């Protein structure tokens, strides 16, 4: 098993991950999403990137079915460099009343300079949080 320190390093380095969750009809959906980690929780804002609307399906789905999977991976034409980290957790919608809100917003701004020109929030400041419960890791070589 990959030690927590190493897993968190891979998580922190990743610019994007894939979020997989069940919709209201129990169909699996996977989408790329941006995020930061604070402790053992991932945070992803409902930001100003183009969307059909600010009320995202992933937020409604998290209420109905909070169990999610996050996939972070590295692909290379040199297949000895391949690795993936699959995170299992519980998702929920949060707003700015959580204690770490300012810290998370600061981390998002530092990780994604795009937020200098794209609003970090669309509508009321909202994020999806994912509490990490466990993970699985695979690598073609001993290092990631």
Descriptive account of the structure:
By secondary structure, the protein is an alpha+beta fold. The chain has a single domain, classed as Roll (Pnp Oxidase, Chain A), CATH 2.30.110. It has 3 helices and 7 strands; from the N terminus they run αββββαββαβ. The model has no long low-confidence stretch (mean pLDDT 91).
Mean pLDDT rating:
91
Strand content: 35-45%
Q: Largest sheet, described in full?
A: 7 strands, antiparallel
- The helical percent reads 10-25%
How big is the Rg?
A: 15 Å
Tally of distinct domains: 1
Fourth-tier CATH superfamily name: Electron Transport, Fmn-binding Protein, Chain A
End-to-end Cα distance, whole Å, is: 13 Å
Structural class: alpha+beta
- In CATH, the topology is named Pnp Oxidase, Chain A
- Using the alpha-carbon principal axes, give the shape: globular
Count the helices. How many? 3
Q: How many strand elements? A: 7
Kindly report the spatial arrangement of strands forming the biggest sheet: 2-1-5-6-7-4-3
CATH architecture grouping? Roll
Which CATH top level class fits?
Mainly Beta
Question: What is the string of SSEs from the N terminus onward?
Answer: HEEEEHEEHE
Q: Which stretches are low in confidence, meaning pLDDT under 50 for 5 or more residues running?
A: none
């Amino acid at each position: 098993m990959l030690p927590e320190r190493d897993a968190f390093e891979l998580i922190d380095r990743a610019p994007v991950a894939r979020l997989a969750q069940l919709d209201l009809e129990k169909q699996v959906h996977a989408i790329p999403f941006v995020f930061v980690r604070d402790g053992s929780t991932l945070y992803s804002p409902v930001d100003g990137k183009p969307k059909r609307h600010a009320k995202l399906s992933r937020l409604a789905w998290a209420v109905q079915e909070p169990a999610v999977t996050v996939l972070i991976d590295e692909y290379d034409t040199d297949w000895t460099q391949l690795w993936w980290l699959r995170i299992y957790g519980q998702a929920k919608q949060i707003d700015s009343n959580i204690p770490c809100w300012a810290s998370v917003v600061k981390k998002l701004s530092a990780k994604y300079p795009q937020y200098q020109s794209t609003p970090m929030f669309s509508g009321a400041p909202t994020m999806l949080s994912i509490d990490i419960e466990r993970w699985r890791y695979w690598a073609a070589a001993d290092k990631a």
